[in-house]
TrEMBL record:
It is found in: Membrane. InterPro entries: ABC/ECF_trnsptr_transmembrane. The keyword Nucleotide-binding does not apply. This is Energy-coupling factor transporter transmembrane component T. The chain crosses the membrane at residues 37-65, 77-98, 235-261. It is a multi-pass membrane protein. Keywords: Membrane, Transmembrane, Transmembrane helix. Pfam families: CbiQ. The keyword Transmembrane applies. It comes from Streptomonospora nanhaiensis.
Amino acid sequence: MSVSEDRGRRGGVPAPDAPGAGGARHWLARLNPAAKLLAALLLGLGLVPAVDAVTGGVVLAGVLLVLPFSGIDRHTLLVLGGPFLLMGLSSGLVNYLYGEHGAEGALGAAVRLLAIALPGLLAAVSSDPTEMADGLVQRLRVPERPAMGVLAALRLIPLLADQWRTVTLARRARGLEAGRNPVRMVTLFFGRLFALLVRSIRTGTLLATAMDARAFGTGPRTWARESRWRVGDTLLLAGAALLLAGAYALSARLGTLVLLFS
């Protein structure tokens, strides 16, 4: 397996230079990560004023239609999207129990949260981490230190999964098992979570020291790869704007548009 193939597999989506990544089906994975981030930011900020279910539902439906073209496999989508789905359901439940608009307001809150979160998830998972950092610095003019922090965070996601597995096996080897005791299960879970947090802090400290040793953020640097902006990237931003405008227009036409401070 080549380096590019391995890099694409670990990210849950084929790398742009991996075999099969250049097909027309996975066109979203081949776009500039900076364009995908801007489109996700446009949709997220654009949905902040609207709290009705129709506006968020139209945007969510549009993003779901693009999902098959991102190249993200189902397992990765389920693992990464599961927490956002739980957040949406819990937000809807809280608004249903304690909100003033009943089931309609609860549905609007849940759909709105998912419509804001899903584009950002697609932008992050469908992009190669190295190209993401290149796009942040070269196209969005983000300072080098936070851009390299984003690159390191994306690269360390598989490492954290391996460390979680190692901590679990180490505790199991020491006889720390929950059995069928739910209280013991929760206690052991938070114990493993704390151990993972300690390891993450140590890894982050080493990375910060390595970045300082390489003088990141002290002056202009050269880049081995050029982050190119193509016609498809502009079309993606235009499509996001049209989707957002169409969602507001449809909601206003149906008379369901509800603004945040109305």
